[in-house]
Design brief:
Layout lengths: L4 H37 L2 H20 L5 H16 L2
Length: about 90
Amino acid sequence: MPNIRSAKKRVRSNARKADINTLVRSSMRTAIKNCEKAVNSGNKDEANNKLNIALQRVDKACSSGLIHKNKAARLKSRLTKSINNM
């Protein structure tokens, strides 16, 4: 347990940031899974809607530094390729 006031504040702020990062990462993963399910079901309109949501979540995770920009590009490319090949 930290004794210095600034270290105590750092512990609190790190906990808040960790919660936000977990939320953003899990929502990104859920959106990707939902998009893949829509592709597997064969519904093109639903897949396009899920794709837009997934791309937004991936961009959000990339801009906040949770994932690398190349990983974001790879995820987006794979999702769009899977929908274009439907």
